[in-house]
Amino acid sequence: MPQLRTADDDDGRRLDRVLRKALPDLPLSALHRLFRKGKITVDGVPAEAASRVRSGQIIGIPELHIASCSAEPGVPAVSPSLEILREGEGLLILNKPAGMAVHGPGSLDEQVRAYLAPKLAASLSFTPGPLHRLDKPSSGVIVFSMSLEGARYFSGLLRDRSSGRAVIRKIYLAITDGTVETAETWKDALFRDRDRRKTRVVSPSASGAAPGAKARPALTKITPVASACGRSLIRAEIETGRTHQIRAQAAAHGRPLSGDAKYGGRPFEGKNPRAGGFFLHSWILEFPLCPAGPLVRVEAPLPEEFALQVQDLFGPGAARHALCGGALC
């Protein structure tokens, strides 16, 4: 009988949940059928689905199903463009290039798994992965998990922020259509239309197009940096983390991101026409390394293409002012 060995990240977890992670292609009904028939063993003894495993135990699985194990042959080589901003405490923080997808073939996720493969101990119930979203055209700070403990801790910080107990800061830079003259707070209710893959601002009581679906609150604080030629360079600090939050709110407040055709932004022209659409850069992440601990600040340098566009639109000092102006520097 083929065997799987549990590791430290599996310790104390339910056996069925460990196997759901280790055998992602095995239907849940088939897994429970194996349990009922006593086909799954731990250290040679038939085991119950709800039993807790310990590190170093041997799980036996019928030959027919072992091919579904999540070991991934053919892991791609690490890209030399992988820009690491911080590594440690169970987290890997990167500067994502604009135009690179977070998931899928050729994605940042693939590159991260290749980079971490020789660094991490084997685990059946943990796979490194991104802990929040960044759209493909966006750039900047993104956090990946390096351990189950790191994933749980950072995900907990994000949940606290969404519930109003903010202990984490995320600040973006963006170029918008229209003029932003003073600081603004955008407080809206957002509905995610999954069929159209688009987010829209609705009234707080609206359920959108789907019965039972609920609008979710979104809060973004806007600080203007520069304005010229009918466009603005802004800082956007998000206190909630909704899909397309800045893009949808900017459009609803009359300043869609320039080049963001999905949300009504007009295209760029001139020396740097921006073939990839809009500019949105995840610039600063601040969070405590432990509960009640000091804040760690991670900054992602502005991409060259973004900096050139800022210079063309707002003058040679605008990019430096965006990164060093005000109380944030």
Mind explaining what this structure looks like?
The protein is α+β, with helices and mostly antiparallel strands and 329 residues long. It contains seven helices and 14 strands. A hairpin with a 6-residue loop joins β13 and β14. The protein folds into three domains: 66 residues, Structural Genomics Hypothetical 15.5 Kd Protein In mrcA-pckA Intergenic Region, Chain A, CATH 3.10.290.10; 71 residues, Alpha-Beta Plaits (2-Layer Sandwich); 161 residues, Pseudouridine synthase (2-Layer Sandwich), CATH 3.30.2350.
Low-pLDDT runs of 5+ residues are 64-77, 205-212
Number of domains: 3
Please state the average pLDDT score.
Answer: 84
Q: SS-based structural class? A: alpha+beta
- CATH class of the largest domain reads Alpha Beta
CATH-wise, what's the superfamily of the largest domain? Answer: Pseudouridine synthase
Helix content: 10-25%
Distance between the termini: 60 Å
CATH topology label of the largest domain: Pseudouridine synthase
Q: In DSSP terms, counting alpha (H) and pi (I) runs of 4 or more, how many helices?
A: 7
Largest sheet: 10 strands, mixed
Identify the CATH architecture of the largest domain: 2-Layer Sandwich
What is the tally of beta strands?
A: 14
Report the sheet-strand fraction. Answer: 25-35%
